[in-house]
Design goal:
By secondary structure, the chain is an alpha/beta fold. It is built from 24 helices and twelve strands.
């Protein structure tokens, strides 16, 4: 491999009549304001006034950039350094806009045409940095000399681009140095950026070497994720770009799909752990290379379509919609997925991905599928949300169960046995009634306990469904009633044993400061079975602490039963 390495200034790179193309395999712009702030501070720290009030500039090295191309060709691919070059383009554009704002349009245009927009030998205009991913926002609202104002930032990448540009504009607006005029201060920053920021420019001649260089520079996890590297492999081997770049289109859609509720890295880890091998984020690429060498990975096109299909199933788990579960009996699945997401529980997702696939292809029947999903939700409500137990080893367990499903093929009996084994594991690991009692006693309905309020409501909903013997109960209007009123200032007023659920209209109709006997007349109007249960348990005319403890014990019992693994 022939490489040329030279020290270059930013001006020497961009002032050439050349297009620098961000390849299709590169990741989106991802710099945060913390990184941008650090760059700005590093730049401005290199500028100072000497004893006579003149400006001095120190050189500052910002790393390597790697291109693929030849001097005779007008385009170079950016193999490494894409994030820095985009950020510097945004900084230069902010300088251009500042000079325009201060009335020095000539300097603004000269800087713009030297660094951002070039002209070819036929007079045709072109942008020196070609970045197709955020098209047309990047071109219309970032690179154009006069912004169109047509495109608003919609994707996370576009929002980051705008945030970086706005940051630089804000810093330039307030930047002052000595007695220099504002326009001169902007030019001083420009001089530092263009002439005193240095890089090591590495150039390879063969375009085909781009992917190899990309992988070699990043395979040790220094900057890129396993997802970036696997994406690189897919794009390298699924290189159809006409009539459209299918790999880029499919990847872009699935990334956007997953990013609406998670991250591509988390999704891919769950997908990988579900179907291939249990591995942490940093070891997935090594696992991929190993399995690819052994012939377990499909050709790039098929592998990408497989990932795309998995991302659609993952969306049903992470962002369930009514349309995903049109059958009445399966609407419980949507409730379970929503609940797991609220509990912030993601460990079961590798198994849930496999479970969904085997339900879709008919290996696992509807009844077994619903029961398994419900058991997982019930387990995690008690284990993760209420008792807050440590989840160590759970994702590994779910991953092994998922791979066992794939290993079982289309054997329905084997698949059912795997579900049964996991069910037994969850039942044995679930906290017992004493742990439930101890955890419920710590739950409070106080104004500062928002998450606890959700736990309380979930306990009531699950208990009501258990007593109703149906999962179709509509509890949209359920509100929470304090039996002993908060104004009493009893130390136990906000514990769950002092609460019952009521329809909102009934709750709102109860006047303040009623006796317990008077309140029970309103409670009798409720259609909730749980309220009937409460009234049967409490025939007395007063409500004291021992009555609260008796109701608490009943709620512990119902919580245990309504979340039983079956």
């Amino acid at each position: 491999m022939e490489l040329i390495a030279e020290t270059r200034s930013i001006n020497e790179i961009f002032s050439q009549n050349r297009k620098y193309v961000v390849p299709r395999f590169q990741r989106e712009y991802s710099w945060t304001l913390e990184q941008v702030t650090e760059l700005w501070d590093d730049i401005t720290d290199q500028m100072s006034l000497d004893s006579e009030g003149s400006m001095t500039h120190d050189e500052y090295f910002i790393g390597c950039v790697v291109f693929v191309g030849e001097d005779s060709r007008p385009e170079h691919l950016i193999v490494d350094g894409q994030q820095r070059l985009i950020t510097l383009t945004l900084l230069v554009k902010a300088i251009v806009d500042r000079l325009k704002e201060l009335g020095d349009v000539s300097a603004a245009r000269a800087t713009y045409h030297n660094m951002i927009e070039g002209v070819d030998n036929d007079g045709g205009k072109y942008f020196k940095l070609i970045n197709e991913s955020p098209r047309p926002y990047f071109q219309n609202e970032i690179q154009a000399f006069d912004l169109s104002g047509i495109n608003r930032p919609e994707t996370e990448e576009e929002k980051r681009l705008k945030a970086t540009l706005d940051f630089f504009k804000g810093r330039l607006d307030s930047y002052r140095i000595g007695t220099y005029r504002e326009a001169d201060a902007a030019k001083i920053v420009r001089n530092q950026v263009l002439n005193f920021l240095k890089v090591i420019q590495v150039t390879a001649k063969s375009e085909d070497e781009a992917y190899t260089i990309f992988e070699t520079l990043n395979a040790r996890g220094l900057s890129l994720t396993s997802v970036d590297l696997i994406k690189n492999w897919i794009f390298k081997n699924y290189d159809q770009t006409h009539p459209i770049d299918n790999a880029k289109e499919i990847w872009g859609v699935l990334r956007k799909r997953v990013s609406s509720f998670s991250t591509p890295e988390i999704f891919f880890r769950h997908y990988w752990n579900s179907k291939y091998a249990f591995a942490s984020d940093g070891r997935i690429y090594k696992s991929f290379k190993k399995l690819h060498k052994r012939g377990f990975i499909a050709p790039a096109k098929d592998f990408l379509l497989e990932i795309d299909a998995a991302s659609k199933m993952y969306e049903k788990i992470g962002s369930p919609k009514d349309g995903d579960w049109p059958i009445q009996k399966e609407r419980l699945v949507k409730y379970c997925f929503e609940s797991l997401n609220f509990y912030r529980v993601t460990q079961p997702r590798p198994f849930l991905l496999a479970l969904l696939e085997f339900r879709t292809n008919g290996v696992i029947g509807q009844t077994d599928f619903i029961r398994m999903v419900e058991n997982i939700e019930r387990f995690h409500f008690i284990f993760s949300n209420l008792c807050k137990e440590r989840a160590s080893g759970l994702e590994s367990k779910y991953s092994r169960a998922a791979k066992s499903l794939y290993a079982s093929g289309s054997n329905k009996s084997a698949a059912k046995s795997i579900l049964n084994d996991l069910t037994i594991y969850l039942a044995n690991k679930r906290p017992d009634e004493e742990s439930i009692r101890n955890s419920l006693s710590l739950v409070s309905f106080s104004s500062s306990a928002g998450l606890d309020r959700k736990v309380i409501q979930t306990v009531f909903v699950k208990s009501e469904r258990y007593l109703q013997k149906t999962s179709e109960l509509n509890v949209a209007s359920m509100s929470i009633e304090h039996i002993r009123e908060k104004s009493s200032r009893a130390t136990w007023v906000d514990v769950i044993g002092n609460l019952i659920p009521l329809d909102e209209s009934i709750n709102n109709a109860i006047p303040s400061n009623l006796s317990f006997s008077e309140k029970k007349q309103f409670y009798g109007n409720s259609q909730f079975k749980l309220v009937d249960d409460f009234l049967s348990l409490n025939p007395q005319s007063s409500w004291e602490k021992e009555d609260m403890e008796r109701w608490m014990a009943r709620l512990v019992e119902l919580t245990d039963k309504s979340n039983a693994i079956r």
